[in-house]
Prior knowledge:
It comes from Compsopogon caeruleus. The chain is an alpha+beta fold. The chain has eleven helices and ten strands.
Amino acid sequence: MGQVHVVGPNRALLISGSGASGKQPRVIVGGRAFVPWIFQRADFLSLELRTIIIESKKSATAYGVMVSVTGVCQVKISGFRESNSGSGSPKLEKDVHAILLAGQHFIGAKKEEIEHSVASTMEGHQRSILGTLTVEELYKDRSAFSARVRELANEDLRLMGMELVSYTIATISDEEGYLDALGISQTESVKKVAQIGESVNRNEGRQRNAEEELKAQLKINEAKKKIEQSNRDVEVMQAKLKEEVNVANARADAAKLFEEAKLKQSIVEEETKQDVVRATVQVDVESEKVRRRRMELDASVRAQAEAELFKKLKEAEGIREFASAEAHRIKLIGEAEAEALRKKELVEVDMLRLKADAYKEYGQAALATRMIETMPEVARAIAAPLAKTEKIVFLGASGGSSSGPSALLSEVTKGAHIVNEGLQAITGVSLGEILKGDSSLNGLERLAMPIALNAVVANQGH
């Protein structure tokens, strides 16, 4: 006969004796087993967590300072352990080796005996680690101390079938007041740091306030700057508008002056044209008068002969004076026109154009007019040699040739022919042909009379 034993997950059943698998006890956790009497034995081990106080009184540190350390550890017999399966997720499997070791050490032992064994082991490791640390290191870094104790104790507890679940330092004390002094020093240091921090915070607060005030002032200054910039932009815009208005007014005034100048120029042009027309008509009238007077003088000379020569000479002198006065008048008119043209550049240009158009329009007539104006100078040039003679004697000639004054007129006529040929060779215009208007007299014969009279008058003056 025997007995059926049922065990929960917090207990381990060790079956030993004949019939066990091999010579090693059979371990059952969270199951049941039939144990026959006489042949087999059943022993139980608790797998529950045990909390043990570890005290190390008056333990020497690295510099010989005696301190008392109280630690708290939690241990248990290792019933299960994690194992990594092929799926990657951890899996719990029964830790048979640890249970057998615990059974070897603790079957039949009381709870207090088991805890005392564990506490003795942990206290030994705790003292050994205290001997390598200073009080300051122990005080400042308890977690490092706990880690070193766990590292050393794990292996020994594993050999006992135990598993160290946790270990922490509960208290550290000494009878000489070293820790209290260290705490005071640390407290004062912390206070000092706190005061420094408070001062720094106060200064930072003041600095932040100053910075905020500075930012506010900068914003105010920036706003004022923008206002001043806006006012300056408005003033610049007003100045530009005023400048544009002034430019527009100046342009309007200039346009007005330009239009007035153009109007005055037009008036001057019309007046000049009228003056030119009047001068042209006057020249034609005077030319006709001269031609008529010369014809009358010619006829009188032929009719009255030598008896009326003196009278004719007087008339010729009057004609010469009249021609000189007329030339002077025309000269004055020309000078006045030149002065007006110098003052008005545009009028001068138009006047030149009008003269060019007049020469182009009248052609040979205009050229003849100019030639007539210069004939008195030609007459004086021809008569200049005669003016140097003291006396002229007229001798008759046979064969019906001219004699006396007639011979003089014949010589003068020849000179006029030579001048006319020269002018015709230069200009292509024959003055004699132009002046042909009377079939009874040749053109050069009408010119010969004034030239002869001029010669006589010049000789008479000497």
